[in-house]
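Troubleshooting: if your tokenizer reports a length mismatch, compare your output against this known-good record of 302 residues.
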Amino acid sequence: MSTDLETLLPAIAVLANPSRSADLAEVASLVGLSPSRAQRVIAESIGESPKRYQLRTRLELGALLLASTDARIVDVAFATGFESHETFTRAFRGRFGECPSTWRSFRHHTLTIEQARVGASISRCSTLYNRPLSITRPTIDRNEPMTYEITIQDVAAVPIIFQERKVEREQIGTALAECLPAVFGYVMENGLAPAGHPFVRYNSMSSAYFEIHAGIPLLEAPTQDPPPESAMLRGELPAGRVATAIHTGPYDGLAAAYAELDRWVEASEHTSSGPPWEVYLTDPGEVPDPADWQTQVFFPVA
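Known-good structure output:
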């Protein structure tokens, strides 16, 4: 039985669905695996155990609902898949360090419903972005031609919270699976408002390593630097002119978009003026076919 990420997506979607109370055996049956094998291959694919993934996404959804709605805490508990107010409160305190009522008192209505929806998507997919479709064999070259519509846009500066990593190309997906859940957790814990989809910026690239900034855009810049022990950094995606294109398809085909943008810039009157970045527009849990995943790539130009 294949253990490709594409094969596992139905099981991951069930784990992220708070209206489903499926146990590991049921989740495993969806992809034709034994519970022990499902436990192992899902953890290898998303960087955390099925149980931890399920609990994390449900608690983060609970925090988003507390910040964006007037729903009673007991209703938030039921909406996020917990059997009682008490079990939700105990788990919430363990994750966020405060009971739900205290946490809400400092963050009530800090998010709109739409911002909470985007936040829930980030939470569900923070371990899936830029993952190869297969964890058991080399990426397949599909040799499918793709046409990119490249446009020039003027973008405003966007405040961000991010983590920095120096990794080999093959480890980018693994690094994002470590960074993005941590960044999103920091955003939630500190009452910050996500402004859109997560990104990775390639701050520098060599034949051996990529220095990446992986993070989340914010509606407003934090007033203080994150504490050093958090391993978080604040900054901004810069204002200015960019050449941009949308890649539709699996993440392992993104190199084609970068190559096409690089050729386009070389042939134009523009010059590259800064590190490129990519934004993950699609929730793989809601769009299970990798052929439909969309990633927008930005090249700063002068």
